[in-house]
Specification:
alpha/beta
Length: 173
């Protein structure tokens, strides 16, 4: 909501749809964040956004990351601590994956989908909560999940990932 103020807080935005991550970053910056870190695969877009928000007065750091790789999930937390010393607010979303017809969803593609939609958010949440506890931060975590998956067989695997993420978010809460 518009009355949220983030004075002197550091926010990290990771995963999810790039347009939503960008809108979140701009919104958090206008609410007084002391710093932002944004992460994603689109280096050119992420660096440009980081420069724009930094120029507007909110120090913003971009970390290129492919959250399908566990080491990149760990790098998000390490980088946030190196650059800002802490995480006060974490916005984490499921990775974007293409929808596939049911008959084209192989075991390997299903595993890739679950890595993007479930494993990556889990690893980032786990790392952020560990850092928050270690630094004594009573932080805020926002998990974005996405659509309902009511589009039939084309989205069954994606819906399974969203359902797992929703259940996991409840567990972390």
């Amino acid at each position: 909501t518009e009355d949220i103020v983030l004075s002197d807080q550091v926010a990290v935005i990771v995963g999810g749809v790039p347009e939503i991550a960008e809108a979140s970053a701009r919104s958090l910056a206008t609410r007084g964040a002391a710093g932002l870190m944004i992460c994603g695969r689109g280096a050119e877009r992420g660096q440009a956004l980081s420069a724009i928000i930094s120029a507007a007065g909110c120090p913003t750091h971009f970390l290129p990351a492919d959250l399908a790789r566990p080491q990149d999930c760990a790098a998000v937390i390490t980088e946030a601590e190196l650059v800002f010393g802490r995480i006060d607010v974490l916005v984490v979303g499921a990775g974007e994956v293409p929808y596939l017809p049911l008959e084209e969803t192989t075991a390997e593609k299903f595993d890739q989908l679950l890595a993007a939609k479930v494993r990556a958010p889990f690893l980032v949440l786990q790392g952020a909560i560990t850092l928050m506890r270690r630094t004594g931060i009573d932080g805020t975590i926002i998990v974005t999940i996405g659509g309902t998956g009511a589009d039939g067989p084309r989205t069954v695997a994606a819906a399974a990932g969203r359902g797992a993420l929703a259940a996991m978010a409840q567990g972390f809460a």
